[in-house]
Amino acid sequence: MSAGNAFYAQSGGVTAVINATACGLLEAARRRSKRIGKVFAGRNGILGALHEELIDTSLESDADIAALRHTPGAAFGSCRYKLRSLDEQAREYRRLIDVFAAHGIRYFFYNGGGDSQDTAHKVSLLSARLDYPVTAIGIPKTVDNDLPFTDCCPGFGSVAKYVATSTREAAMDVASMAETSTKVFVLEVMGRHAGWIAAAAALAQEKPGDPPHILLLPEAPFHQERFLAKVRQTVQKRGYCVVVASEGTRYEDGKLLAEAGGKDAFGHAQLGGLAPLIAGLIRSKLGHKHHWAVADYLQRSARHIASAVDVEQAYALGQAAVDFALAGKNAVMPTIKRLSDAPYRWTIGEAKLSRVANVERKMPKSYLSADGFGITAKARRYLAPLIEGEDPPPYRNGLPQYVRLHNRLTPKKLGPFEV
Prior knowledge:
- Helices cover 35% and strands 19% of the residues.
- By secondary structure, the protein is of the alpha/beta class.
- The strands form five sheets. The chain has a five-stranded mixed sheet, with helices on both faces. Strands 7-8-6-11 form a four-stranded parallel sheet, sandwiched between helices.
- A hairpin with a 5-residue loop joins strand 9 and strand 10.
- The radius of gyration is 22 Å and the shape is elongated.
- The mean pLDDT is 94.
């Protein structure tokens, strides 16, 4: 029996290490070429399969594939496109099977967050429904760190390292100027429903009283007067105040402070403008001069300061996905299983996609300080190992060197398809 081909795609918001996962998967597949033929990468995620825009990764050199390990972004393009149920989108699922059959694809690897794991799960159901054998493996990725059944999510450790570093550096700047200038600095970070990224900023603290002085987390409802009192008290005691706010900060009734009114392609509320909103509140109520910043894409693309632990785990999960598929496993996601905190030791585990899909893991209450403006020692023990180590990319002329693949498409065999 000839080797089956594979389809790999990247989905959702990208990270500094999603290409490290691609590197692990592609290198593992090349070592097993007798069982996996070509690996086709979807151009712009699942849309690449629907449009039959399949990148032939066999045309990329080993050196360029290896360079993916230190390259940010999504090498093959990503997308936000949610496949609904098999009944609601039967036409799209039929198209997937037609494309897979036309190109001899027997393995499906989807690299993304909760919605992406849902897509991988639905594809795994196609074998029985449409009588086509395909093995579906979901691969975790999300800076939000909100997938269940895994100790952490690839992408998070590097964002955590970037945010903690930026918080420490910006705080030193503010402290220098606080006597005659800026008293309050507000940094807005990602985190729609879970505050893992904002919480990681607390790793910047070396002793009690160090910045960040206030964390705003989705898991701790926002109370305006309580917040303003904390800012006032901090400025009086420390001379300045550093606030790190999750974009998903919300009132007790669940309403988001920064909901912009729109929806993204996955149906989630579009967020934006929290930092200036918080800063404006401080200025109008307390009169303090302030500065604010939004980490936005910078936090998730900063490969130059990636966590070595994060890179290693991302690569290992790509390899594990191939191992799982060739071992006959289906409808599962490889996970990180923590064995100990100090030293940090971990291994590869697995979770069923049916249990992972569309489930968000929020920070437990035991990780939140009593006042809701900080984290506990337990949270610090969890977070600290994930930012350990440095894995810098190669530099030339003072700048990091990243690879851009050729991304040559394989010839189409089917007609056009509109989504």
